[in-house]
Amino acid sequence: MHLMRPIRAAGFCLLAALALSACVPGNVQRTPEETAAAQSANALAQRGQFDQAAQAYLALAAQSPGRADEYRLLAAEAWRQDGHIAQAAPTMAAINRRRLRGDEPFRLDLLQAELALERNDAATALQITLHPSMGAPDAYLTRLLELRARAMAASGDRWGSARTRVGMDTRLTGLDQSQNRQQILDLLTQLGVGPLQRRASAMQPGSRMLPWVNEALSQLGVAVARPQPTLQQPVGTLLPGADANVREGYKVPAHLALLLPANGNYAAASSAIRQGFFAAYLDAARNHAPRPSVRVYDSLGSPDGAVKAYRQAVSDGAQLVVGPLTRTEVAAVFAQSPLPVPLLALNHPDDKQLPAGDVSEFGLLPETEGAQAADHMVERGIHHAYVLTSDDDFAQRAASAFKAEMESHGGDVSGRTILPNGSVTYTDAIASLKIPGAGTPATPVANPATTDDTTITTVPAPVSDTGIFISMRPAQARLLVPQLKIANVTLPIFATSHVYAGVDDTSANGDLDGVEFCDAPWLFDAQSGLPRHDDVANLLPTARGGAARLFAFGMDAWNLVPYLDWLRDHPGSYLPGASGQLTADQFGRVRRVLIWARFQGGLARPLGGSLQMDEVPVTVPPVGDTPAPTTSTSAPASQPVNY
């Protein structure tokens, strides 16, 4: 098992200060000489000279028989703080427990447990840390939990150890939290896929361990269900008696940095995000709310460039950093933990690191759309689905999430096929699925391996509660949907946002009539309080077409800034954003709840109509602040970008 440094919770200097401020037995005060010697020993510890501090405390123990055990305890704690708990063993053995007062017996027990672990005596350490009398004062609870977790792991109880560390999570920050989270995942992944899946299936939705089990399964390569978050209370409630610009949870730093690549493969996506960010930033002036100064840094689109840009931003006085953009960049910045300045990353790391401390993640994940498509179909009474996707990465990720979420509701994927890009005829692929109504039903085929990149046929499900899920770009969908109709397939079709090019084109989109898809509400003016999409698109090219989703993403990158802390500290709170309703999970990941739209007469319109109630005047950034988008052949802003 990967070992990590012990968490130094309840620091030694605090312990020494508490001990030295206490009265001695019988309310007899220390002599001036003793007080001076004790303060000198404490000063040595504060400078990190723990061995010298321990020797000084032992000298005090020899000179002050009435307080000898108190000073021996402080000496042992100094050695422990120095990482030499074994050196403290003889001193600990000389302590008379009955003479200890206040929290001192508890502190001695913690030392005994840590010494037992040092000697590979997990049974003794576990007995001490689980003893009913170990009612931990709050200042020492984190250390007790860590010792208990280490003892459980050493005893072979990985689940118990992980569960104990989960109980520590919210008590930690920075590097301690980051290492503790990694230890949790290390312990859980060692249990293996089967045991984790069995535990997950037996848990209630609100179980504290379920998100961690799902995270471990994801790290083992298993697609897990991602149900929509519960949205309870929007952020920004106007405080009673406050001015119009004082809203609950609103808090901004004085200086903010935005890290985006200025050139290369991601320049087009970066330009749309940057212009969306500043459009929302300038629009915030309507409420006269306080705003930070913003400085933009070029992250170069590379790990080294992102780390350098982050460090430069910190050096320049940034109090919050937004970005970087690509998965490799985010992973590189995360690896610098602990980060000296809070971060809102605009993607999720490719190495699946968990954010820790003041780090948040926000990204446009295809998994989100796949899972919400499954939820939407189940709400419509559809529990069986045929899945047809392109061979793009985004489509495969969406399909895997769709399958996991559908199965979590008791449904299934009745068949799945991948349509290669460049093909124009899908007759054979459609026929191979044996969709009811399109031919003779297939005989049962025992092949549950629905994650293979091959066509899979199973027992056809009843048509009444069956649908089709697709994930592909518009051109491919316009070829597929008419061929499904020709094949006499009349099942309802649901899709990810990739099916919509972001513009009304009745002649091209007429072939998609009836298809429902999830998307960002701002594209349809389906979220109140935001500038109208068409008004902004008439002024800025990056707000048009498929790039509009990245523009909306940039808008929300700014909109999240004042409420990051509030979202993290208030589960169930959400921000009505341009790219969706935004809420934060326990890991600091911002999750989106999308809206649903349908093609009718070649036009894409939100289901249930527009939710826009207030028309907001449009404010756009000056040309000098947001340069016109550059083109990129590898990642054009008008196409899905898997950055």
UniProtKB/TrEMBL annotation:
Signal keyword on record: yes
SUPFAM superfamilies: Periplasmic binding protein-like I
Keywords noted in UniProt: Cell outer membrane, Cell shape, Lipoprotein, Membrane, Palmitate, Peptidoglycan synthesis, Signal
InterPro entries found in the cross-reference section: LpoA, Peripla_BP_I, TPR-like_helical_dom_sf
Transmembrane segments: none
The keyword Manganese belongs to this UniProt entry's keyword annotation: no
Protein name: Penicillin-binding protein activator
Organism of this sequence: Rhodanobacter ginsenosidimutans
Upper taxonomic lineage: Bacteria, Pseudomonadati, Pseudomonadota, Gammaproteobacteria, Lysobacterales
